[in-house]
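ok trying again, last paste got cut off:
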Amino acid sequence: SGGAQSTPFVTIDCAAIPETLLESELFGHVKGAFTGATESKKGQIEQAHGGTLFLDEVGELPVSLQKKFLRFLQNKEFVRVGCTRRRTVDVRIIAATNKNLEQEVQNGTWREDLFYRLNVIQVELPSLRERKEDIPLLVSHFLNKYNALNKKAVLGVTSQVAETFDMYDWPGNVRELENVVERGVVLCSGDRISQSCLPPHLARIETEENRSGELNLLDMEKDIITRALDREDWNQSAAARALGISRKQLRTKMGHHGLL
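nice, full thing came through this time. structure:
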């Protein structure tokens, strides 16, 4: 009946909120519960009622809060800071962490009962270096995001950058890739992110494209044209002058090499 109703999706980053404020952020507080609590406030758990609460970096949840959170998971009841009234919510919990929580349990920094209560369905996300086929799709997504934020119209990356991305191991995973694309969009003055727009440690990577002496003539021509365009910020008239050909000739060659 009617259209589908949207349900709340609430995210809380356990690593970004000071331990002293995290309990209030999760469970809420009543007026006067502590200094600065000038009015009552719903916590993120309450705001997610009927929907989903996503706990990012849940491995950073301090030991002092783990028992309270376990009690909430078991009966879906909680108490706001400074209050005695129990409240009940209906929420789905999704949690993510880059820590090995089983190891944390052995180290005594994570409650074993909370680990098993939280770990009902485990989805292990491989590191980016193990799924490099996802990189082009992720790059496209981040280009759309940062083009909109920066009012730019960057269409993609050069073939050399694509090869660099494929060769790199991405120790910082998807967040590192996002940062690299954001930097590229900000610095890029043409319509493609070039090697010169990458962070120094990536720009120095020696790709097949810039070290091979066995490129065929067409590849060499495409490489020369791309480099000229990169040097001139993809200004076609300036690149044509640098190459000693007319702009019309340059556009014909660009079309032939799929650079338009």
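cool. The mean pLDDT is 87. Residues 251 and 260 are 8 Å apart (CA to CA).
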